[in-house]
From TrEMBL:
It is found in: Gas vesicle. Keywords: Gas vesicle. GO terms for biological process: gas vesicle organization. The lineage of its organism: Bacteria, Bacillati, Actinomycetota, Actinomycetes, Streptosporangiales. This is Gas vesicle protein GvpL/GvpF. It comes from Actinocorallia herbida. Belongs to the gas vesicle GvpF/GvpL family. Its main location: other. InterPro entries: GvpL/GvpF. Transmembrane segments: none annotated. The keyword Cytoplasm does not apply. GO terms for cellular component: gas vesicle.
Length: 264
């Protein structure tokens, strides 16, 4: 049916309805209470779709191209963080979109609700923390020059030579320093694991956050062990104070400890 000549819609036709999909933030136990004012992408209220004792946190999302805008990423993180404060959560990575609530219930929750329930049970009472460290530049360079005389000799050989006259040697020096940093990072990551793992349930190595990274490790920590874990981080931070700037992030949703979804 077409609109009339004056632009009015024929009787019985309403305004065009914009289709929406469901953005999925994660899985929580059924009956979880979320903050009343919690909003997802597009400023839409979030809600629960429940099935078999578990629930998906979802929100409406208008049709669009690929996701990834800063406000979309922040909205995702805000919802997951708020849910993690309220209850144990199995967080989804950014960008999970399903066609509708029925599809969430029938295609996601129905075939996997027992597996979701088992994972949530394993994660209950446990939080993720991330420990990162960056080398203090002058301190780590002194260590490298002391531990690797050949690097110190090459640095001295270059001295104040013009860049044009020592370009190759400077490349060689830079590569030698990078190799030394890689080796030190491996040793320091092992040291960090030895100091902190006794206070944790599990650990997951993460990619270095940059060339100056000394360590980047996620830990799953039981709530009862959190005080001893934080004390151990403080002790290592004091021990490394002159050479590494150590940081503790968390508690966080356990992204690094979500197993791969089992197919049925």
């Amino acid at each position: 049916m077409t609109a009339s000549a004056n632009g009015a819609r024929p009787a019985g036709e309403g305004p065009p309805v914009e289709e929406t999909a469901c953005y999925v933030f994660g899985i929580v136990p059924a009956g979880t209470r979320l903050p009343d004012d919690l909003l997802g992408l597009d400023g839409e209220p979030v809600r629960l779709v429940e099935r078999g004792g578990v629930a998906a946190i979802v929100g409406g999302i208008a049709p669009r191209g690929p996701l990834g805008a800063r406000d979309e990423l922040l909205a995702h993180e805000d919802v997951v963080a708020a849910a993690a404060e309220a209850e144990v959560i199995l967080p989804f990575r950014f960008g999970a979109v399903v066609t509708a609530d029925d599809a969430v219930a029938q295609e996601l929750l129905a075939p996997h609700h027992a597996w979701f329930a088992d994972v949530l049970s394993d994660l209950r009472g446990r939080r993720e923390f991330v420990v990162t460290g960056d080398y203090r530049e002058e301190a780590v360079l002194r260590e490298i020059m002391t531990e690797r005389p050949e690097v110190a000799d090459l640095r001295a050989e270059i001295g104040d030579l013009p860049v044009e006259a020592s370009y190759g040697e400077r490349i060689q020096l830079g590569e030698a320093v990078v190799r030394a940093l890689d080796d030190k990072r491996a040793v320091d990551t092992d040291t960090l694991l030895a100091a902190l793992e006794p206070h944790t349930v599990a650990a997951a190595l993460r990619d270095p956050s940059g060339e100056a990274a000394a360590a980047n490790v996620a830990f799953l920590v039981a709530d009862d062990d959190r005080p001893s874990f934080e004390d151990a981080v403080d002790a290592l931070g004091e021990r490394w104070a002159d050479r590494v700037s150590l940081r503790l992030l968390g508690p966080l949703a356990p992204y690094d400890f979500v197993p791969i979804l089992e197919e049925v």
